[in-house]
Amino acid sequence: MGGTLECFSSFLGSDRRYKKRKQFQTVELKVRMDCEGCELKVRNALSTMRGVQSVDINRKQYKVTVTGYVEPHKVIKRVQSTGKKAELWPYVPYNLVAHPYVAPTYDKKAPPGYVRNMEVVTVSSQVVRPEDQLTSLFSDDNPNACSIM
């Protein structure tokens, strides 16, 4: 009788043994914390979450790193429940970006050695060579071309 009951309950979808397991991952957040009390509040809130293996906080960079079997949106919600503003870590090392000092990428609030992670998607059907760029600078079709000639 027990075997048919298990078969019947799994047929109805109430068998919890086959629930999808969360992936082990690292979630990095930017959370503004000014004092030890703020840090302790955020650390306690995150360390009591189910699936969290470790919580690392760098208060100077406003960076919180959570590792474990967690989902990023749930980690953000837990931090926000403490009254702190939280977002996914928006910075990458500047040497990973092609143009780290252009306006949308450069952020003076970023920690040293980091710039804002801006994904630039450009769709171009033509291949542009550097020589083509130079010749178009001085063409008659370009209204902003050099007017010295």
User: What is the CA-based Rg, rounded?
Assistant: 26 Å
List how many beta strands DSSP finds: 6
- SS-derived structural category: alpha+beta
SS summary, helix count: 4
The percent range for strand residues is: 15-25%
- The N- and C-terminal alpha carbons lie at a distance of 96 Å
The largest pleated sheet is described as: 4 strands, antiparallel
Note down, in words, how this protein is organized.
This protein has helices at residues 2-12, 36-47, 72-80, 130-137, and strands at residues 25-31, 52-58, 63-68, 86-88, 91-93, 114-116. It is 27% helix and 19% strand. With 149 residues, the protein is an alpha+beta fold. The strands form 2 sheets. Strands 2-3-1-4 form a 4-stranded antiparallel beta sheet, with helices on one face. It has a two-stranded antiparallel sheet with strand order 5-6. A hairpin with a 4-residue loop joins strand 2 (52-58) and strand 3. Residues 120-127 have low confidence and may be disordered.
